[in-house]
Specification:
globular; two-stranded antiparallel sheet; 248 residues; Spore Coat Polysaccharide Biosynthesis Protein SpsA, Chain A; 2 domains; alpha/beta; 42% helix
């Protein structure tokens, strides 16, 4: 059995996938779970020596569980195509997997970049490195979560996330994933959408992005991102409202 496998979830990421692959080149095995890409994502991944498995689903847990199933390694490292390991994080992970394991899983510290800028100081902590036999499964269609046996620690260095690179991509993704979000809320019998609720979710999204996360410090890029966060919430809840109206 190999020591560590990198599992990368990707869909139409031909412009980003190579850099992501290079950041995990130290891994013994690299697996791409290609979610029905229509561009050269799979071709580029194969050229870089990755094993590619094609699937079509809106369920992110299925994608991550498939990666676990296909991997033949003691440790699993999950990243997305728009993420890269910093060199220091790569070195830290190599040290972890070469030594007798103290923990079942590790959280990675993710630093987000919007329009190429690290707009906010807030760092996310995400479980992404696992002993394979301690990771039971992933669950959750869109906001997936791992089920782990044992204790969790966290790495000290950064995973870099280059999200929201341009407005065209942002709008496309928002339109797609808002549909899933709305369907999920509808199935959970979300309270009926009203004028007040619309204003509350839109203003809350903007306030969180611009004030709480200090988007104002990024000047124009911060205001664009904060307005877009409010727009994303509007689209999601407008689709929910539409579903509720059709049920009546």
């Amino acid at each position: 059995m190999k020591n560590i496998a990198a599992i990368i979830i990707a869909k139409n990421e031909q412009d980003m996938i190579k850099e992501s692959l290079l950041s995990v080149a130290f891994c013994d095995e690299i697996i791409i779970i290609d979610n029905d890409s229509s561009d050269d994502t799979a071709k580029i991944a194969k050229q870089q020596g990755a094993r590619v498995f094609n699937v079509k689903t809106n369920d992110f847990s299925k994608l991550r569980n498939l990666g676990k199933e296909k991997a033949d390694a003691k440790w699993l490292l999950y990243i997305d195509a728009d993420e890269r390991l910093s060199p220091k994080l790569a070195g830290e992970i190599k040290t972890i997997v070469k030594n007798p394991p103290e923990f079942s899983a590790y959280k990675l510290l993710r630093k987000n970049f919007y329009f190429g800028h690290n707009l906010w100081p807030k760092i996310e902590k995400m479980e992404r490195l696992f002993q394979k036999d301690k990771l039971k499964m992933w669950s959750g269609e869109l906001h997936e979560s791992p089920h782990i046996i044992g204790n969790i620690s966290e790495c000290r260095n950064y995973l870099l996330h280059f999200t929201h690179r341009d407005l065209e991509t942002m709008v496309e993704k928002t339109n797609k994933w808002s549909e899933i979000e709305a369907q999920t809320r509808f199935k959970m019998h979300h309270p009926q959408m009203t004028t007040l609720r619309f204003f509350r979710v839109i203003l809350s999204a903007f306030y969180d992005s611009y004030i709480i996360k200090q988007g104002y410090k990024a000047k124009t890029a911060g205001i664009v991102e904060s307005i877009f966060q409010a727009y994303s919430m509007f689209i999601t809840y407008a689709k929910l409202w539409e579903l509720q109206q059709k049920e009546k």
